Amino acid sequence: MYYLQNRWKCNGKSLVYYGIRLGENLNRNTIKLTGKQKKIISTLPKELSKNEQAELKKIIASGAVLPREPKKTPLTLAEAQFCTRCCANDFIIPGIEFTEDGLCAICASEHITRNFKSVVPIVDKIPHSKKSRFDVAVFYTGGKDSTYLLYYLAKVLHLRVLALTWIIPYASESALKSIENAQKTFENVEFLTRYVNKEDLRKIYAKLYGLNENTCACPSLAYVLFYPTLVAEKVPYFIAGNEPAQMTGLFYNNMAPKIAYKFADNKFLNFAVNLGRVLTFHPPLRRGQFHTLTTVKQLAFGTKKIVKLFGYKNELVENVTLAIHEVPKTLKPLKNSVRKSSWTGNIPAFVQIDFDEISGGKYDWTKIKKLIIEECGWVAPEDMGKGLHTSCKIEKCKEFSQFSRFYHMKSTMIPFSAIEIALASRDKNITREQAIYEIENTLGFSLEEVPECKIMKEFLKK
């Protein structure tokens, strides 16, 4: 009797795997099907004739079709198989594969991703600008990571910082208090706060909820709100404030290819990009400007077909883009600024700071929280054990919806937090025990709707 492995699913003319595979199959989650293969697979489970086995030979060899009943996806965390090194398990990441020694696919591929620091250029020095009042801008949420980044830029490097905050209806009390305290602490930081009016925000959120089953639009709306200001103020650099696990997680979610982590240092690719710009009478781009334009152009004008052709799909950004386009007036200032900055070359460079390097070799969550409490007046969430995504009341809703959709194979997007907490424990930013505590107590990996979803739904109904 042959079975379709339970994390493979027929989608159109392809078999798609919902999980993270091992070894040479890492991120090879799609198998093209012939008409005959699709017809045979649609009749499984059943005994296969020799001709049918021959037709499915490569698919059987890949493990997508098995000569035995497949292992079922765990229904609870207690039933899950855990990695022997990190906190990854096949409940929060259904379909993650393990070696014979019990290492998960994330740990088994560490040699591949060890140097995947960022998909945007990493800088270790930011010079003082002669053309702007600011040296750098930061998207500041009041969370752990953005507070540490603000501390480093303002107090350690003594830069003139523009801290950009957009207030959402779901901002946590601890984040709001942290923002208030930061405004009192940093004398060389100018804070700029923006809102989206609730009527427009509900239109955006309603569309996004229909697509994602959650309303998380961060940080995309921040780009829409603040890019015109960055251009007008001629801010030379801006930083989103992503820690290492968030950047590496894009690779495991099949949202960024290997080349994305090396693009900034690839002379040929940068030459090709700038040749195209020069031939169209645009000024060549400096380091980081290509990444800025790519980001804001997608939000302003939609995802280019060429990106989809390469098979790298950021479902989250694409859906947020569709949602924002529900309120066209919101995009007018962004579109004007994108066009103007592209022609003039006055584009803030999107760069990243290596959190591991600046914090002494390892971005230790426990030490960082202690530091920013003492130096910045940072206010921790009620549960001090929480270290992943601390600034939003509905973070559990996002995790629940992403988890539920992936678990039931409605979406190929693996829950961001599941990958990030696994990477953080693999790379020793947090201990395995602390990570498992977060999974059990502070994150939204549940097959039953989490109570925090009520907050989100109540805002949509008003």
Description:
The structure is a single chain. With 462 residues, this protein is an alpha/beta fold. Among the domains are: 1-72; 136-350, Rossmann fold (3-Layer(aba) Sandwich). 45% of the residues lie in helices and 8% in strands. It contains 21 helices and ten strands. It has helices spanning 35-41, 50-55, 57-62, 105-108, 110-113, 144-156, 173-185, 198-212, 220-232, 244-252, 267-279, 289-301, 305-309, 315-324, 328-344, 355-358, 365-376, 395-407, 416-426, 432-441, 453-461; strands at 3-4, 8-11, 14-17, 30-32, 65-66, 136-139, 161-166, 189-194, 237-239, 349-350. The strands form three sheets. The chain has a five-stranded parallel β-sheet with strand order 8-7-6-9-10, sandwiched between helices. Helix 9 (220-232) packs across helix 15 (328-344). The radius of gyration is 23 Å and the shape is globular. The relative contact order is 0.14. The mean pLDDT is 92.
